Every structure is written in C-alpha cells, then in structure tokens.
Backbone:
C-alpha cells in the first residue's frame, strides 16, 4: 500500500486465525489504520485482495452517523441481518392483519426465524449489558445519539461493534475515551471472545492482557509475532541484535581477507588471493532494512526544588448548575509525591485539576487562571513552579506561527541550538522544526507541549490525559521520564502501566466523593479487593481481575 511515493507496506500475505487475538502495532503514521481499513473493505489495496467473512464487527469512527437513532437501537445495528429483519417485521406488523397477503404472511414467518436465529428476542437486554459494562447507565439507553457527548458516542459505537457475535472483530483504538474501569471490563470481554480479534491500541497493558499475537508494521511489511506487545518487542530486538552481531563478525572477517588480498594478489600466492576474493563475496553482510520506529527522549529537569509541602487543599468544591461535581475535598501533598487521579469519566478529575491550577505559580495561562470554584482554598508552597498539560492542550498552541517560533516564546534567552536540541528529542528534526503549528497532528501537538515543559523546568507537573494521541514509543518514554522525575506529579490517565509504575498515591473519584489512598496502585487494588470481599465474593473476583 502506498501514499504518493511513500510505501507503507507491500507484498503482505498473512492469515488471521479463529480463536486468536491480534494487535496491529507500529508508530503513528506507519499505516495501522490504513491496514485496518483495507481489512474492513473501506479502502482498496494498491494490489492484491482480501478474503473476509460475512459477519464483521467494526468500530465505526463517524460519531454523527446514528444521531437520529436511540442508543439501544444503534447498538443492535451492529448485527445488520437482525436489524434489517426487525425493521421489516415491524413494518409488516404495522399493517392491518386482514390486509396481509399470503406472501407477506410467509415472509413474516421467515423474519421470525431470522430474529430467533440472531437472538433478537433478547437483543435489547444483550445490548444493555454491553452498554452497562462500558459505563453507560440505563437512563441513557433510550436517549437519541444526538443527545450524547463525544466520548459517550464512542462507547455506544464500541458496543455496536461487539454486538451480535461477529466472526471477526476489528477495533481501531477502542480504549480511547474509556475510563480504567471500562478498559478492564473490555479486556475481560475480549479475552472471552472466540472469533478473530484485530485491534489497534496505544495501551501497552491492554495489548499484553488481551492479545495472543502481534502484526507489526515495520520495514515496509507486516511481520507476525507470537505473544503480546512486550513479547513482540523482545523478539524484534533479539532478532535485530543477532543480525547486527553476525554482521559485525562478518565485517571483521572480510577486513582480514581484504588485507590478505591486498598483500598477495600480485605475488606467488595470487591463487590464494583469488580464493579469498570468492570468500569475501560469500561473506557479504545481510542488509538491515531501516526501521520506522522513532523513539522520543523525555527528561523533566527542575530549576529548583519546591518546599516540602507544595500543595495544601482545603474544602475545595465545584458545582455546575447547582449540582456538585464532588464533595468538599481536603488534602496535603508532599514534595515528590506522584498522585494518579482515577475514576469513571465525568466524575470530576479534570475539574479538580482546573480548580487547583487556577491560582498556581509558574506557567499557567490567563484563561486557566479565570476558572471559578465554589468553595475552599488552594495554597501553593515555597518556590513552587507548575507546568500544566491540559486535556484540550491543542488550543494552547497558537496558530499562525511555526514549531520553533512557538517554542522560543517560552524561553526567549534560549539559543536556536538549544531549541532544536529539545525539539529533536521529541522527533522534530530538520525542517519539522519549521512546520506550521496549524498543520500539527494530535500526537505532534502533544509532543510540542512536552518540549515546552522540558524547557520550562517546573518542579510540579499537572498532566491531564497526556497519553492521548501518543504512540506506544512516546507513552513508554513519558512513563520512564515520570518515574525518574524528582518533582511532584498530579496525573490523570487511563494507562494502566503508567498508573502502576509511576503513582505513589491515588485519588479515586466515585459517587461525588474523592477517596485519598496513600500508596501505589498495586496496594490500592488490594485495598479494593478487601473492601469488595466484605460486600460479595463476585465483586472481589472482579477486583482481582484488574490487577
């Protein structure tokens, strides 16, 4: 498959087998979504063909296509044969019985057979189970799709893809807009799925938990590996290291042979030199194709340490339209703590971060400072400098300039060499540093914000969904950088591994309350399990599955 002169992949021949769950991996721009669209039939390959079964479950990307339909009906549409039969049956039932022809009566019987074969009599309850698991409660099921927010629509479309027992399930970024509870539910669901699963995701823990095989797009082809994402990385690195080692040994041998040939090609040992030439030809090193993987390097330094208690929160509360988002919250944060804010979407995680940074010293915009709260105070400690990564961060990147100029405003004393060095760490090399800001993708915008944070050197980082739009390499780089960072972190993310490996404290949002758990995520899951065991063994099992 090509885009212009660029080859994404070519001469790919592979089979996806029933009962296996495949991850499609590769950096942003490698062609993952293009490959998925070829598999679904939405794109035609440049050459070759694809054989696919009749019953596909596809995660649709058009959030507005079903705006006129009820949520529950949108899910049932995932089974096209059932939905068509239900609509035709409803139309025939609407006719007066005495006006039905014999042909229509017989066809009505056929439709009832299709509805029975496709589990149509339990369709609404089956759809409701999927919606509940994905965090959409029953009151929303009867609403029109047009009344839902974007993230809620994505969940409905995911339920649509899962509905109706498809033979092949194709999911492009299914964990986007899902909170961690919903991601865990989806993991459990997919691990029980018996068909062919093909999934694209930038969630490493999700891929390791769900997938049995990896189709990796690299070297202008697609290579199949056994195991999850980490297994693929290990195998891929091992193979490349082995080839590099063999090449080094061959190059050393070739150098020795060439030295012999140069010394004796014209003398009495010319016959031996000729033999050595043939051996040199035989020993030519294997060409190593260039990988398309690009690894950013993130390191957050600080100009100075903050005081021992950078944040003091007292009875902070926020309401919208008279409805409290969360109860008054009080907490003291110590220097170096790394706090993960967890909970279902819409429970107030972003609202709390906005309530905190509104009066923060450091690098906070005028708009962010104007965010109102309804009660309480936030006190910032000695020498605190806050760096903020907003969830809607792309709006903070002014259009009408280029990447280098935009970054320069945050440190006017920095040299061009220093700026280009920081940009290079985040893969803005050469002319990419002159790219217009209006042309930046979501991933590029996120990487540019990280450049700004590295330049500013804050001692408190407030990060709201920083992994959105990042590929796996960038997420891994951010994870490692946060582990090494010596400052204080407030972090909203649905990335399981990042929470598990970075967080030293958990603020969990549920039912309008914030639970303050002082300890890492592994201890918090044990705490949840213990609490669940007091309620019911079934809930305890669910808590264990999340670990």
Residues:
């Amino acid at each position: 498959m090509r885009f212009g002169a660029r080859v994404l992949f070519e001469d790919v021949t592979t089979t996806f087998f029933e009962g296996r769950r495949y991850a499609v991996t590769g950096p942003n721009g490698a062609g993952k979504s293009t490959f998925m669209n070829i598999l679904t039939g939405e794109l035609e390959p440049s050459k070759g063909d694809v054989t696919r079964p009749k019953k596909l479950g596809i995660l649709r990307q058009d959030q507005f296509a079903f705006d006129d339909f009820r949520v529950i009906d949108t899910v049932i549409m995932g089974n096209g044969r059932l939905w068509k039969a239900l609509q035709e049956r409803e139309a025939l039932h609407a006719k007066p019985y005495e006006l039905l022809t014999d042909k229509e009566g017989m066809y009505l019987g056929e439709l009832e057979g299709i509805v029975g074969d496709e589990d149509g009599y339990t369709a609404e309850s089956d759809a409701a189970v999927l919606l509940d698991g994905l965090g959409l409660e029953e009151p929303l099921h009867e609403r029109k799709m047009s009344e839902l927010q974007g993230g809620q629509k994505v969940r409905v479309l995911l339920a649509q893809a899962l509905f109706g027992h498809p033979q092949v399930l194709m999911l492009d970024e299914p964990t986007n807009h899902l909170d961690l509870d919903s991601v865990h539910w989806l993991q459990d669901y997919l691990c029980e799925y018996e068909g062919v699963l093909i999934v694209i995701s930038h969630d490493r823990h999700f891929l390791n938990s769900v997938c049995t095989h990896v189709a990796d797009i690299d070297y202008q082809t697609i290579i199949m590996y056994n195991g999850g994402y980490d297994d693929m990385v290990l195998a891929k690195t091992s193979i490349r290291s082995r080839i590099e080692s063999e090449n080094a040994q061959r190059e050393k041998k070739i150098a020795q042979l060439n030295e012999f040939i140069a010394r004796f090609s014209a003398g009495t040992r010319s016959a031996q030199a000729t033999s050595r030439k043939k051996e040199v030809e035989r020993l030519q090193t294997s060409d190593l194709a260039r990988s398309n993987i690009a690894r950013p390097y993130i390191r957050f330094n600080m100009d100075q340490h903050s005081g021992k208690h950078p944040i003091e929160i007292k009875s902070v509360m926020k309401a919208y339209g008279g409805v409290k988002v969360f109860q008054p919250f009080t907490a003291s944060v110590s220097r170096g703590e790394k706090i993960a804010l967890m909970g279902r979407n819409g429970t107030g995680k972003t609202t709390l971060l906005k309530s905190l940074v509104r009066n923060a010293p450091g690098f906070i915009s005028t708009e962010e400072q104007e965010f109102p709260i309804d009660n309480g105070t936030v006190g910032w400690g000695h020498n605190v400098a806050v760096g903020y990564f907003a969830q809607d961060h792309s709006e903070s990147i002014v259009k009408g300039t280029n990447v280098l100029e935009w970054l320069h405003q945050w440190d006017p004393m920095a040299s061009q060499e220093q700026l280009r060095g920081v940009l290079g760490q985040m893969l803005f090399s050469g002319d990419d540093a002159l790219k217009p800001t209006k042309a930046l993708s979501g991933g590029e915008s996120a990487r540019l914000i990280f450049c700004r944070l590295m330049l500013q050197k804050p001692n408190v980082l407030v990060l709201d969904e920083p992994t959105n739009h990042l590929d796996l390499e960038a997420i891994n780089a951010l994870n490692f950088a946060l582990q090494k960072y010596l400052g204080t972190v407030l972090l909203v993310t649905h990335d399981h591994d990042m929470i598990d490996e970075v967080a030293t404290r958990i603020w969990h949002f549920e039912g309008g309350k914030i639970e303050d758990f002082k300890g890492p995520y592994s201890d918090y899951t044990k705490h949840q399990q213990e609490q669940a065991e007091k309620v019911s063994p079934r809930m305890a099992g669910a808590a264990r599955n999340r670990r």
User: Anything to note?
Assistant: DSSP finds 19 helices and 18 strands in the chain. The CA atoms of residues 92 and 193 lie 35 Å apart. The chain has a mean pLDDT of 89. The first strand starts at residue 2 and ends at 3.
